[in-house]
Write a structure and sequence with these properties.
Helices cover 4% and strands 64% of the residues. Strands 1, 2, 3, 4, 5, 6, 7, 8, 9, 10 and 11 form an eleven-stranded mixed sheet that branches. The longest helix has 8 residues. The radius of gyration is 18 Å and the shape is globular.
Length: 191
């Protein structure tokens, strides 16, 4: 159901996507093949909404994320997906806000993860700002923020804190020998 054509609001009960392929190319200057936001010459509004998507239930199966020829399989499902994409009018930058409840991921990146995810980020030509990222599950919690500059030779400045039970860490990392305990994390990483 399209809530508003003018506002670009889309509300979907069930969305199934099979074999999606996402190809991200990072050029030598750090720019990517993603569409570039441009600053508006005249800006009656500060932010322009590109689209808003709400999905009650979704499934993504047999997908592939390819970044400069490195492939990552994507298979996931979840509930209450909310995605908002806006463009800053005074700066060449996109803002992305995403949330999903009860996400289950069966890929190499997050093997067996099940929980809630929220993220707010900004993207421009060769920078990504992670304003807020939270991953919450029954056995784990992770919060992160920071930035990634120059995609070809990335420099990251990220702050991460969280906790995870050993069994959940073993499942995510595919390390069955790890059986008991809990790990905490409070880290700032630059590099």
């Amino acid at each position: 159901r399209i809530v508003s054509v003018l506002e670009r609001d889309v509300d979907i009960k069930f969305l199934k996507i099979e074999r999606p392929k996402i190809h991200l190319i990072v050029h030598a200057d750090g720019s990517t093949n993603s569409p570039k936001a441009t600053a508006a010459r005249t800006a009656p509004e500060f932010v322009s909404q590109l689209f808003s998507l709400r999905v009650d239930r979704f499934e993504l199966s047999g997908g592939m994320l390819e970044i400069n020829a490195q492939r990552y399989p994507l298979t996931m499902r979840g509930n209450d997906l909310k995605l908002l994409l806006t463009r800053e009018r005074m700066a060449p930058q996109y803002k992305i806000s995403a949330a999903v409840r009860n996400m289950q991921c069966d890929s190499n990146l997050l093997n067996g993860f099940a929980g809630d995810v929220t993220a707010k980020l900004r993207l421009d030509r060769d920078r990504l700002w992670l304003d807020d990222f939270t991953l919450a599950a029954s056995s784990a919690r992770l919060h992160a923020n920071g930035r990634l500059v120059h995609f070809e030779n990335p420099v990251a400045d990220i702050q991460v804190d969280g906790q995870i039970e050993a069994g959940a860490a073993a499942n995510l990392a595919n390390m069955p020998g790890l059986q008991g305990g809990e790990a905490g994390l409070d880290r700032k990483s630059v590099g």
